[in-house]
Amino acid sequence: MVESGAERVGDGVHTEPYLTAGRTYQLNLVCFGHGSARMRFTPARAGTETEVPCDRSVVRRRVAGRERMRIDVDGDRGASGVVAWEVDAVG
Question: What are the residue ranges spanned by the domains of the chain?
């Protein structure tokens, strides 16, 4: 495991994990509550913007290591609950 955490949906997840260039990582997110959240990457080429429903289902995305990458998960209007996440090295 590289990095993990849990945040209130209203606060969101805003992190810049240290990822080694050339390695592959898996980002796992789960939201428990009501509504949904939206996951975004900066730079945008690092990953696809994705809806994260707050229904306890796990959303998984593979990402390539880069020198700098930011992951933001923000609750949609009216969303509530908790978002848990982790980044694991897979290759």
Answer: 10-77
Q: Label residue 67 by pLDDT band (50, 70, 90).
A: confident
> Beta strands 24-42 and 3-8: pairing type?
unpaired
Grade residue 68 by pLDDT with cuts at 50, 70 and 90.
confident
- Count of alpha carbons within 13 Å of 74, Cβ hemisphere only? 7
CA-to-CA distance for 33 and 31, rounded, in angstroms? 7
